[in-house]
Amino acid sequence: MAERLVPAISLKDFDKRKDYITQQLIEAAEHTGFFTLVDHGISKEDVEAQFAISKAFFDLPAELKAKTPHDNISNNGWEYKAQLRPSTGTYDQKESLWLQRKSHWPSDKDVPHFRQSTTEFMSKCAEISDQVLSCFAIALGFEEDYFKIANDPSQPDCLTQLRLIHYPASEDAVGTWRAGSHTDIGCLTLLFQRDGEDGLEICPGRESHTSFAIGDTFTPLPAETGPIVVNIGDMLMAWSDDRLKSNFHRVRAKDVGKPSSRYSIAYFNQGRRDFVLQGPLKKYPPMTVGEWFAQSVARNFGSQAKVAA
Ligand SMILES: O=C(O)CCC(=O)C(=O)O
Ligand SMILES: [Fe+2]
């Protein structure tokens, strides 16, 4: 394990401080890889409320969760220990619910206020993502709203998703991978954690030397309710002509004792399917986000051929 700096970047007074925030974001993205956002506009209470909604869903009996089944084509819905990781050769020890604005949602009868609260949470995540991505757009030499347009979640072809995740407590989890090492396929991920539910470990893309960072050095990133952990995905790496590297991360069960449950929430900015993706230096040929995704899924998941972050 290595000590690594994970800078905390404040989004306070974003419009007034945008130039300075842009400098901080690009410095962090180019050098440390991971960073956290504070003063981002989602209160700690709102994050806790969203986690409470997530827990209420995962506490439902399996037959009620299965009313929102996972669909391999859209990658939306509830999956239980179904994500096979090439890095570990085993299934991640977790269940998750993938959502898009227009996907199939759990009913409010099963989880009161689920849809409205979660939709509002997604909108706030979209606003924060737009702020960060507009800074990256400027630094990369794109128009300021380039990523906002490329990633507009109100458009029907937008692939952006929210993922509620639960790693169940288990007697036999010691030494297992709750989530195997990977980079996210999309553009930019906002990750919410809860106080005390550690397990996330990171390895910046710049410091990894193997295809899944196997054998590379990882650093634990302690869980805290409030700050948002941000990581760059493969799509933004391609879109920046590899200037901003995607970052490896994994979730490990504790080595001793019974690991308690862990909840996390990830918001994946994944672009609009029909948008043509190309970096400002044109290092790679132009390709639609949809084509790029299909290639990336085949590379990362081979025969399992399903979209997963
Ligand atoms: O639960 C976490 O902290 C990580 C989740 C994650 O990496 C993913 O879903 O891609
Ligand atoms: Fe991830």
From TrEMBL:
Residues 158-271 form the Fe2OG dioxygenase domain. It comes from the Eukaryota. InterPro entries: DIOX_N, IPNS-like_FE2OG_OXY, IPNS-like_sf, Iron_ascorbate_oxido_reductase, Oxoglu/Fe-dep_dioxygenase_dom. One of its GO terms (biological process) is small molecule biosynthetic process. Keywords: Iron, Metal-binding, Oxidoreductase. GO terms for molecular function: metal ion binding; oxidoreductase activity. Coiled coil: none annotated. Belongs to the iron/ascorbate-dependent oxidoreductase family. This is Fe2OG dioxygenase domain-containing protein. It comes from Penicillium canescens.
